[in-house]
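Sequence in, structure out.
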Amino acid sequence: MTEEEIKNGGEDEIQNGQLAEMEERWKRALADLDNMRKRTEREFENLRKYACEPLLLDVLRSMEDIERALESAGSANDDIVGGLEMILADMKGTMEKYGVIVIPSVGSGFDPGQHECVMQSETSSSDEADTIVEEVQRGYKLHDKVIKHAKVKVAKHKGGEPNGASR
């Protein structure tokens, strides 16, 4: 082998190394582009899915006002009460249509991700501890996201006496 062939062989190795490095950088750039595309699609889907949240919260407040009005009205004027009940039923149907669901409360276990404890009551049974005994204000989810935590009263076990045993 001549000196020139050895020199050219070294240049080929350098070029092959540079080519491999550029190919690796190209693959990483393609992967980054694909990840960015997927992330953008997820963000757009979430934006579309939750864009109506502020509007729905306002409508939910109006629904709760109508419910309170119906509770206080009793049977004062059957025609008006009947009309309000129809409006309320229509509003509830619309909420369901857009993915708003009521968070279950009474009888279920306390979940700080969905419930806000505003009161506690003592219980002698440890089985009932951390169970919701009263719903103070209804909570709602929009699809899988909590948009309004349920305000609840939670049962707490009396000071250290398991299952109602007395000392």
